[in-house]
Write a structure and sequence with these properties.
338 residues
Length: 338
Amino acid sequence: MVFLRSVARRAAIQVALSSSVRFITTEAALEELAYIVHHNRGVREGLSGLYITFNRSPPSVKTLREILAHTHKLEDLRLEIPNYSRLCWGRVFDGLYCRYLSLLQTSASHDILANFLRKHPQIEFINITSPCNRRRGVCTLARAFLPNLVDLTGPTSCVAEIPDNNPIRSITMNCFTAEDEEYCFRCLPTSIYDVRLTLTRLILGFDPIHHGILRRIHTAAPSLRELGLYETKQINMSRGPLFPRPWDDLLEWARDLACFSHLRSFSLSTYAQAIRNKGNVKEELTLAFQWTSGQRRCRRRKEQTITRIALRYLQGTADETVTVMDFMDGKWVKGCGA
């Protein structure tokens, strides 16, 4: 039995040696990697991606620290440990420096993360998956100097403070709290003012009570090539699925969409039933035509700025439907991504 365990351990090590990316979801796998990086320089030098996810019992901070202390050439680091306390995150990031780090995804406390980012201005992609831990005032991530940052994802009210002086091209704003939901509409134009000409992709949660959401977004980011909107669950559950949506006014919705002269892709996720008969392809394609033309009857068009629409409706229900539509040869057709 001891011999078999030894053989299995050596086999696991050989697999690890041949991979520059590791995915860790168990304590045993974490301890295995800690052993490998401690005893094998080739693995320490060759590991470029480390993805650690623990959704239930949090892993040993000491073991995780040991791994991070030995992997100096990480380019991608993802630490998803929602049950870690602020103290644990402080120990994980304390003194940590990753010279080649380009992508960071983490559920770490924002004040701990802010200190880490100050030492890593080279980061290009950031995904913050934890709500803000501030009690009042602005987030500690505000005005972080990240001159190479191009893609940013995180809580709306926190992410909105980061674009200042950073060349961001893509922003995804997620709503964790009621404050995030309100902040999106109230402060969007000013929060991303400094990147309004370079920002080409924006994904954000929104409150359907704000019928002027598209106009607000255009004021903030007129050069968008990709725009995605999704209704937040908190808003929908409080008002019900029959609450009037901005696109119920077809002409205004189409006019507002037409303001985006560079927009190529538009996606929408809603709890409402967007068409009369769910899953009816003809009705879905008609909706795409109406949104992009402002006309109710379909007809061929020679030119079309928006060439892809992704629609998710009845979101979160047993009847949830996702469809992708492309504009080809003068008409809307069912997309290959559907």
